[in-house]
Design goal:
The protein is α/β, with parallel strands linked by helices. Helix content is about 35%, strand content about 20%.
C-alpha cells in the first residue's frame, strides 16, 4: 500500500516492493530492487546494506560485512537502486549536491535511513535498517534505573555520545519512548533524517526532518523554542552555535537531548569546552554546572554467541560534587569520581572499563574484544587480572576463608527517596528526578 503516489517527503511515505528491469541485460532478466535487497538484509539480521559499482551488495551483520554471491553491480544499477525511493525533487538535489539523506518505511520490514553519494564518478548508497517499533530501555539492554533518571528531569542537557554505529540513536529513541509512556509533555525532535517513528502515548511528539519539514537545521533551532516544547531532541551538537541553543533551552526550562561523536564522558566534556575560545570558558563551565544532567558514552561489541551485539555504557551523572568540579573547571577529576561511584553503585555512574569488565564477567563478550575497545588498556588488564585471581580463589576445593567475592560494578542501586513513583503505581511528576544534596556522601577517588 502506498500512502502517496508521488511523495514529496522521505519521512512519511510507505512503499511496497516492485521489480526493476536492467535495461543493459539483453535477456531482459529482472535485477533485484532496493526493497528486495532490504528485505534480504532484514532476513539476515543485517543492520546495514551497502551498494556500490563493481561489487555485489554487501550486508553488515553483527559488526562484520559479508557480500552476496550475485554478480557485481554496474554503475547504472547502483544509480537506479539509489534513486528508487527518491522523489523528483530529491533526485534534482542529489544531482546538484552529490549527497542525499532520506528515509522511508518498508511495511513489515524496517524503517530505512538512506545516504546516497558519489565514489569514483559512480553512485553508491548505504541503507541503515531501523526497527519499526521503538524498543524500551529494558529491551535495549542498558542500565534502566540510571538512564531512566535522566529522562525525569524537568530541564537540563543530556548528551549521548559514541562513534558512528554505536547505537546512539537506539538509546535516545528508548529514552524518548520512556518519556512518551510516562509523562504528558510536548516533545519536538530535529532529525536529519528521521529514523525511529514514534506513536503518541501520554506525550505529544512532533518530528521535524531537515530538508523536508524545515529548510535548514539552523532555522529549525531558531524556531524550536517558539513551539513550546517540554523536551527537545536536537541531534548532533555540531558547533558552538548549536551548543549555545542547547544550553539556552535547558536554562529556560526545557529538557534537551543531544549527541556527540566522542569516545567517553571525559572526552565529551573536553570537546564541549574546546568549542569555545579560552576567554569564554569560565562562563561555559558555570553554565554546564547548572544545566548538564549527564553524559552517556557507549560502544557496541559482538557477543560471544556471534549473533548479537552488546552495549557497553559509560555514565557520568552530575551530582552535587561533580557540579562543583564543573563550576571550577576541574574536569580532570571526573574520571576518578565515575570510577569510585562505579564501585559503590550509588548514583549509577561507571567508567567504560567497568562496563567492559561487567560484560566479561557475564560471559557476554571475550576478554580480547573488551581490551580492543578500551581507551585505557593498562587499567582494564589490571581489572581483568583481579577478576581472574578472585575466580581462582573461589574454585571448588578452595578453603572457605580464602574465598573473595568477584568484583561488582554498581550493583547497589540507590533509590531516591525510597520506592520510585513508578514502582508505587503513581503517575510521576515530570521533573521529579533531582535529589537533595544531603543525600550525597562525598567519597574521595583513590
Amino acid at each position: 500500500m502506498t500512502l502517496r503516489d508521488e511523495p514529496t517527503s522521505g519521512c512519511v511515505r510507505e512503499i511496497t516492493p516492485s521489480m526493476q528491469t536492467d535495461s543493459n541485460n539483453s535477456a531482459n532478466v529482472q535485477s533485484p530492487t532496493l526493497l528486495e535487497l532490504i528485505a534480504q538484509a532484514a532476513s539476515m539480521g543485517a543492520s546495514d546494506l551497502f551498494l556500490k559499482a563493481g561489487s555485489p551488495p554487501g550486508f553488515k551483520c553483527y559488526g562484520k560485512i559479508s557480500k552476496s554471491e550475485g554478480a557485481a553491480l554496474t554503475p547504472e544499477q547502483t544509480r537506479a537502486l539509489a534513486e528508487e525511493q527518491m522523489s523528483h525533487a530529491q533526485q534534482q538535489r542529489f544531482a546538484e549536491h552529490l549527497e542525499m539523506n532520506l528515509s522511508f518505511t518498508v511495511p513489515g520490514v524496517a524503517r530505512i535511513r538512506q545516504n546516497c553519494y558519489f565514489e569514483r564518478d559512480s553512485v553508491a548508497t548505504t541503507c541503515r535498517l531501523v526497527p519499526l517499533t521503538v524498543r524500551t530501555l529494558d529491551e535495549v539492554g542498558i542500565p534502566v534505573e540510571a538512564v531512566s533518571r535522566l529522562t525525569e528531569y524537568r530541564d537540563g542537557l543530556v548528551l549521548v555520545t559514541g562513534p558512528t554505529g554505536s547505537g546512539k540513536s537506539t538509546t535516545l529513541a528508548a529514552m524518548i519512548e520512556h518519556i512518551n509512556r510516562h509523562f504528558a509533555v510536548n516533545i519536538i525532535t530535529l532529525e536529519d533524517p528521521i529514523e525511529y517513528v514514534y506513536q503518541d502515548k501520554l506525550a505529544m511528539i512532533s518530528q521535524r526532518e531537515v530538508g523536508v519539514d524545515t529548510h535548514s537545521y539552523e532555522e529549525a533551532l531558531k524556531q524550536v523554542l517558539r513551539q513550546t516544547p517540554n523536551v527537545i531532541l536536537m541531534g548532533e551538537v555540531r558547533d558552538q552555535r548549536t551548543l549555545d541553543v542547547a544550553l539556552q533551552a535547558s536554562e529556560t526550562g526545557h529538557l534537551v537531548f543531544g549527541t556527540l561523536h566522542t569516545a567517553g564522558a571525559c572526552e565529551t566534556i573536553e570537546r564541549v569546552a574546546n568549542l569555545y575560545p579560552p576567554a569564554e570558558r569560565p562562563l561555559l563551565w558555570q553554565r554546564l554546572s547548572v544545566s548538564l544532567r549527564g553524559v552517556i558514552s557507549q560502544k557496541l561489541l559482538p557477543c560471544l554467541s556471534g549473533h548479537a551485539l552488546a552495549a557497553a555504557l559509560e555514565m557520568l551523572v552530575v551530582n552535587p560534587t561533580i557540579e562543583h568540579l564543573l563550576a571550577d573547571g576541574q574536569h580532570g577529576d571526573l574520571y576518578g569520581m565515575m570510577r569510585q561511584d562505579g564501585e559503590d553503585g550509588y548514583w549509577g555512574m561507571r567508567t567504560m572499563n567497568q562496563a567492559l569488565l561487567q560484560l566479561v564477567m557475564e560471559n557476554t563478550v571475550s576478554e580480547g574484544e573488551a581490551i580492543s575497545r578500551s581507551s585505557n588498556v593498562a587499567e582494564l588488564k589490571q581489572m581483568l587480572r583481579k577478576l581472574q585471581l578472585s575466580r581462582s580463589r573461589t574454585e571448588p576445593g578452595t578453603d572457605e576463608e580464602s574465598q573473595v567475592p568477584e568484583p561488582t560494578i554498581g550493583v547497589a542501586s540507590h533509590q531516591r527517596g525510597g520506592e520510585s513513583m513508578l514502582e508505587q503505581g503513581q503517575q510521576p511528576e515530570f521533573g521529579a528526578a533531582p535529589v537533595e544534596e544531603s543525600m550525597f556522601v562525598l567519597r574521595r577517588s583513590p
